[in-house]
Amino acid sequence: MKLKYAYLFFLIFFSSCENQTIQNKGIYKSVDSLKVENEKAQFSESGNSEMKKKSTKLSDLDFDIGYFSGQAEIATYQLKKARYEVMHPGEAILIFVTEPFLIDEQVKADQPTDENSIKVLKMNRIDRFTTGIYDYSQFTSVFTPLQKFKAKYPMKITMGSQDWCGQTFTQINNNEGFDYEHKSYFESEGDTSLHFDYVFTEDNMMNLARLSHDLLPVDEFTVFPSLAYLRTSHVEMKNYKAIGSMDSTETGFFYVYEIPELKRSVRFFISSENQNRITRWEETYPTVFDGVLRTSIYELKGVELLPYWKLNKKEDSRLRKSLNLMY
Q: pLDDT digit string (tens) for 127-183?
């Protein structure tokens, strides 16, 4: 299933450094020790099959809140990162867990009540990769409401990016639309504040996929790009038009969306088991400095369901081996 578009794109370069200038018995549960080679799906791209539609009300969806409650799903991915003019080795981690979340303060609730808080699905995404001598670490958190608010509009998104040149931090809050705050070491980016209307956000797509395929946008829609992508691609910070499509597969479903103006496309391969586990994803975009289209590839290599916040003793480090962690 390939989508073809004619693109008009001007790659914007900013003057910045880049332009030269986580064994206590009984307290964790291991999930189906993966032989990832056997779990990789053979995804059909017939282009004609359609997903069976269900109600799009979140209360009617088959999302199992208990799956991510009390424990977190931790999945590690081998990463081939497209950055600058070549591919770089790396690793990504996705952590999914439910938490109580204060509505007004928009932080995790220490003393939640029905009045002051809601349940959210939190995703922590960590991308680590090297570029020659120096490395990158990008940490994105997304808080998707499971009550009272629409899941397609997250309550909050944060992203911190660090490399040897400097660091940035970006935060989006749900406030009758989205409030955006960006703090940066780089002069060309500076400190930025703005407000924009509700739209889909790239960073929330994985949470929507874990909840239900019915929540993912198909056909034409408006999207705000991934915060990590904005940081490293130096494109204009604004909403963009996108086109999404979906196909069922023998093992789950395949979802793709494209942002023509950015020449950016993202493809998710998702299993129907284990609450729509993400087995692989790909991100294609023009890389600085040459503008050539390259594809970052994320392949599942390990997964566990466990309360990582309790596993902080020296002997707990053995669990890192089951996740095949590099860093």
A: 999 999 999 999 999 999 999 999 999 999 999 999 999 999 999 999 999 999 999
Handedness of CA 73, 28, 101, 140 (dihedral sign): negative
pLDDT-derived band at 62 (thresholds 50, 70, 90) equals low
Are the CB atoms for 95 and 306 separated by under 8 Å? no
d(CA 22, CA 74) in angstroms, rounded, equals 10
Please tell me the distance from the alpha carbon of residue 34 to that of residue 306, in angstroms, as a whole number. 15
Rounded-to-integer distance, Cα 118 and Cα 183, Å: 28
Which tokens go with 261? 């103006």
Strands 252-259 and 219-224 turn out to be unpaired
pLDDT in tens, 239-260: 999 999 999 999 999 999 999 9
22-25, long-range: CB < 8 A, 24+ apart: 22/74, 22/308, 22/309, 22/311, 22/312, 23/315, 23/316, 23/318, 23/319, 24/310, 24/311, 24/313, 24/316
Burial of 1 (0-12, 13-18, 19+ CB in 10 A): middle
Going from N- to C-terminal start, the domains of the chain cover 24-44+66-322
164 and 136 in contact (C-beta within 8 Å)?
Answer: no
Q: Specify whether the backbone of 243 is left (phi greater than 0), alpha (psi in -120 to 50) or beta.
A: beta
pLDDT confidence of residue 189:
84
DSSP per-residue string spanning 39-56: H-------S---PPP---
In terms of Cβ atoms closer than 10 Å to its own Cβ (0-12, 13-18, 19+), residue 219 is exposed
Residue pair 193/180 in contact by the 8 Å Cβ criterion: yes
